[in-house]
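User: Um, any thoughts?
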Amino acid sequence: MLPDFHCFLNATCGMPTSNFTGFASYNPPAILPHTSYTPSCTMNSLNQTSMLLKQYIASNTTASFVIHNPGPLDDYEIAGLSLNLGSSWRSCESAVKLSSWQILSCEYLIDQANSIALRLAWACDDRDPYHPVLFNATVIGALTQGAQLSISNLSWTGANHPMDRGPSLPWI
């Protein structure tokens, strides 16, 4: 009996369908957490009491700084913020220079006493990549390089979906 040439030409002779990853299309690999590079993003975030103002540069109208978040061990570089003093919170999301998944939201308030308050949100998916923990914190401190910014409010909630991973590539 001759083999079925249609089977050989289409490479479907009892083999599971697959994609370029090598995994069968009906059994895709588990997603990897973004924050797996830290010892424990979730536990560090729950236990932190401050963030570090690593760098601060100001001109007459704008300010730039780098804040170290010991939860996910991320540095947030925020550049070109307006120094217009006021009593209303302003968004700093467009000034953040890093991957979109590192910081979910950012607001700031600078007062006349040269202190800053920030509302930051980040996610940790080291415990369960499909259901990350979303953290929100308000940090307050002096606008001087090396200052510890005290966390005055920390809250968290769970997400019912994986973190946004950017563009989907056909081989992932």
Summary: DSSP finds two helices and eight strands in the chain. Helices lie at 5-10, 41-47.
